[in-house]
Amino acid sequence: MSNIDWRPQIGDPTFAGWFTVFSYFLAAFLAFRVYQHAQKLIRSPHNKQCLFWLWIALFSFLMGINKQLDLQSLLTAVGKFFAHQQGWYNDRKMVQGFFIIMIFVFGIYLISWGLRFFNQILRRNWLAFAGMIFLVFFILIRATSFHHMDKLIGTDFFGLKLNWLMELTGIYCITLNALWILKPRKVTL
Which of 24, 76, 112, 134 could form a disulfide with 170 if both were Cys (CB 3.0 to 4.6 A apart)? Predict the structure, then answer.
């Protein structure tokens, strides 16, 4: 395993990289605040609202750490290592294609499960749910490291890389939904 071409280092030391890390941590913080808010209102940490926002807080926090550790590159390096070791590196396109299909199937399953499990709370949380779906698909597809996929998401869009815009869109869907829930409301009698 010492032949794996990966070193622990800052994955994206640019302004956009650090802004994305900050955005993940902001989303994690706000999601955790919504979780705490839901616990106070419902008085049970096991209700679906609490579970939904706790899961989002944990996911966002871990993705913020991953953003700069670049763990998906480690996954790709380990895959390349085993492909070389086991002699199927030249046939990797077939494996990558299979992986994309499995991601698609898993994603559809995850969406349908989430829609059923969280059905009662989606009316207030649909934007965060959409943001999570967006991020999960983006991250999994990014992890496949297809050359043409890397080219597509590395494309500039008005001076910004498309992958930054895609990732930040998912993060800020979560953030905006959390802010909307946490917004103080006037009580009328």
Answer: 134
Residue 123 burial class via C-beta count within 10 angstroms: exposed 0-12, middle 13-18, buried 19 and up = exposed
The token pair at 41 is 């209102």
* Short-list 28, 12, 10, 5, CA closest to 163: 12
Dihedral of alpha carbons 122, 125, 127, 129, sign: negative
pTM above 0.90, yes or no: no
Q: How far apart are CA 163 and CA 168, in angstroms?
A: 8
Q: In 10 A of CB 152, how many CB atoms?
A: 13
CA distances from 76 to 5, 6, 102, 135 (A): 9, 9, 16, 19
Which tens digit of pLDDT belongs to each residue from 8-38?
Answer: 677 778 888 899 999 999 999 999 999 999 8
Closest residue by Cα to residue 15 from 172, 134, 168: 168
For residue 58, CA distances in Å to 29, 88, 118 come to: 9, 36, 17
Identify residue 57 by its one-letter amino acid code: A
Return the domain boundaries, the chain: 15-182
Question: Which residues in the chain belong to E strands, given as ranges?
Answer: 156-157, 160-161
